Amino acid sequence: MENRIAVVGIVIFHREESAKKVNGILSDFAHIIVGRMGIPYKEKGISVISLIVDGTTDEIGALTGKLGSISAVKVKSAVTI
User: Fold this and answer.
1) For residues 31-51, average pLDDT
2) Residues in a beta bridge with 48
3) Are 54 and 32 in contact (CB under 8 A)?
4) pLDDT digits 0-9 by tens, 14-27
5) Which parts of 1-81 fold into alpha helices (H)?
6) Domain limits for position 37
7) Strand partners, 50
8) 20 to 30 Å CA-CA from 37: which of 1, 5, 6, 30?
9) pLDDT grade for 13, boundaries at 50, 70 and 90
10) Is the pTM of this model over 0.85?
């Protein structure tokens, strides 16, 4: 399968409850993560993480699926080339 480049946006609500799970999943998929930027948005009570990933569509789907299964996390991805 051919690798694709994608942008993944992650919004975390209730950081105290979810951050450890999110970071565990991101560690499991570190081999496809090219770049990561995380911003705490204190005024809204959320944290936002953006990722650039380089992997197969199956790997990208597995990453976003696992993140999306966490109740206080919303994930969107845009697969490009």
Assistant:
1) 96
2) 11, 39
3) yes
4) 888 898 999 999 99
5) 15-28, 57-68
6) 4-79
7) 9, 37
8) 1
9) very high
10) yes
Which CATH number fits the domain that encloses residue 60? 3.30.70.1150
Supply φ then ψ for residue 69, to 5 degrees: -80, -10
Q: Which two tokens stand for residue 3?
A: 């690798």
The token duo for 52 is 């650039």
Measured at the CA of 66, the angle between CA 62 and CA 68, to 5 degrees, comes to 115
- Torsion angle in degrees (nearest 10) through CA of 63, 29, 41, 70: 40
How much is the pLDDT for 59? 98
Burial of 62 (0-12, 13-18, 19+ CB in 10 A): middle
Let me know: does 24 contact 63? Beta carbons within 8 Å: no
